[in-house]
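Blinded run. Sample ID left blank on purpose so nobody reads anything into the name before looking at the predicted structure. Input follows.
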Amino acid sequence: MNEVTNRVSEQDKFKPTTDITQQKIRARWGENWRLDDFKYVHRVKAAEWTGTEMEHNLNPGTLYAKKYFEKYRRQRPPQPLVANKGNIDTGEAWMEAHRKQEEAECRAKQIEHDSKTS
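Blinded prediction complete.
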């Protein structure tokens, strides 16, 4: 569960220690949703809502709400994400690209942190 709160802090700039954030994460965790589920919801909704009038909903109160979380988790990534020879990718390439981007950002943050502490 700490991984989820750390992710909220890093990715969304929300304090992971606020009561509402902790409550929502604990509730979904208690329903057997895990880190990969939270990541998926973040990715899919960010891809769908960033730059739109719905962007304000990219927050723990909405993303982790019991009313919406399972619906968001079961949602297919926005289509078309990638076109390949006329076939629409099912989203795996998109998910892999975002995973690689997150890893690169994490490495960059670690390098920045290490340079400040050296």
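Unblinding after everyone has recorded impressions. The two ends are 30 Å apart (CA to CA).
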